[in-house]
Amino acid sequence: MGYEFTLMSADIDEKAIRVEKPEELVMALAEAKADAIMSKLQTIDNQEKNVEPNVLVAADTAEAIIQKLRIGEFKKAADSGLLITCDQVVVYEGMIREKPSSKEEARLFIKGYSGGHAATVSSVLVTNLNSGFRKGEWDKVEIYFNDIPDQIIENLIEEGMVLNVAGGLIIEHPLILPYVKEVVGTTDSVMGLPKALTDRLIKEALST
């Protein structure tokens, strides 16, 4: 999308946040991530104020050096003024699916998609750290599948990538792509970041 950015983990317990409707759940998780990261940024800002400037010397451990560099990255990101947090779930037969907890669950998930369909619900929340403006929305995409051979499912599971995404669903993967029948919506939204929505929210946040 042409933007420079810094990644930062919210490190929240997502399972502790439970909301029945998928649209409300992804928005609640994006809000919780934003609050957690803003708290981290405030801590970093306080560290910057309380610590005298210093020079990295050979006595510093590698871990300490990396930590100082990371603090500098995050401080720069905070000064830029925008924070974007997101979340995604898969909805299958009315049930919310998050990341598979095991290979067995991933197998069950993907077998269910074979010859059927699922939906992704993705949230984007943009916070202007300078003005306090915050706005978020969600986007839904329907995905229809042809029959997926058992061997393809096993190959996907053994590779492991499906264990790290909501619902074990990766339609852009070269193994699964030939079995995607129809996508009603945008592929970038299925991948976790609806670009048109994100761009619109960024522009709104920058205008405040």
TrEMBL record:
Keywords, comma-separated and alphabetical: Hydrolase
Pfam families per UniProt: Maf (PF02545)
Keyword Hydrolase among record annotations: yes
Molecular function (Gene Ontology), one example: nucleoside triphosphate diphosphatase activity
Domain of life: Eukaryota
Positions of transmembrane segments: none
PANTHER family the UniProt entry points to: BIFUNCTIONAL DTTP/UTP PYROPHOSPHATASE/METHYLTRANSFERASE PROTEIN-RELATED, MAF-LIKE PROTEIN
Name of the protein: Maf-like protein
Source taxonomy: Eukaryota, Viridiplantae, Streptophyta, Embryophyta, Tracheophyta
